[in-house]
Amino acid sequence: MNNKYVTSVEERRLNGEDREDEEDDDEENESGFLRPIDNSSLHHAQYRRSLRALSAASSNTRIQKGLIRYLYIVIDFSRAAKEMDFRPSRGAVVAKHVEAFIREFFDQNPLSHIGLITLKDGIAHCLTDLGGSPDSHIKALMGKLEFSGDSSLQNALDLVHGYLNQIPSYGHREVLILYSALSTCDPGDIMDTIQKCKK
């Protein structure tokens, strides 16, 4: 009977049923008799399998949401950016830092997208649409360094909200505001716009 059992184990090995073989080898001693089942090792194996399943599930959810970032950078090009407290001007210094930020952003987030919005004359203008090319954003930014009028933070938030509302839910939506003025010239209540953007 022992020989018959050993033969069936060998047949299963030849058929490629390795998992069952490992369990059979664990339960068999040197002389071919079955050992009593060790419950603690079974529980430990189940515990390890459940930990692996949990870590795989958590890593999958981490990858699915927030992997692709959609960022709009709002830059104040109002007359406050003409101030010369930084050389050559406040707006030029901000533009150089935005250039460095864009390059660093795409180095760290190659799948993500950036769009640029400028504020001047009380209006928010979309300088570049969401895209993944740092050179096109930097070229557009450096070619439009003209500062005039007042800035309206509410108009910028309304424009950004309209664009980011179309982004799929798996993307992470962000707005970075670089503001030079001390005040904002808004057509309505900016707090309502902020609450709308939070939703």
From TrEMBL:
<feature type="domain" description="Ssl1-like">
    <location>
        <begin position="74"/>
        <end position="199"/>
    </location>
</feature>
<feature type="region of interest" description="Disordered">
    <location>
        <begin position="1"/>
        <end position="37"/>
    </location>
</feature>
<dbReference type="GO" id="GO:0006289">
    <property type="term" value="P:nucleotide-excision repair"/>
</dbReference>
<dbReference type="GO" id="GO:0005675">
    <property type="term" value="C:transcription factor TFIIH holo complex"/>
</dbReference>
<dbReference type="Pfam" id="PF04056">
    <property type="entry name" value="Ssl1"/>
</dbReference>
<dbReference type="GO" id="GO:0006357">
    <property type="term" value="P:regulation of transcription by RNA polymerase II"/>
</dbReference>
<protein>
    <submittedName>
        <fullName>General transcription factor iih subunit</fullName>
    </submittedName>
</protein>
<dbReference type="InterPro" id="IPR036465">
    <property type="entry name" value="vWFA_dom_sf"/>
</dbReference>
<feature type="compositionally biased region" description="Acidic residues">
    <location>
        <begin position="18"/>
        <end position="30"/>
    </location>
</feature>
<dbReference type="InterPro" id="IPR007198">
    <property type="entry name" value="Ssl1-like"/>
</dbReference>
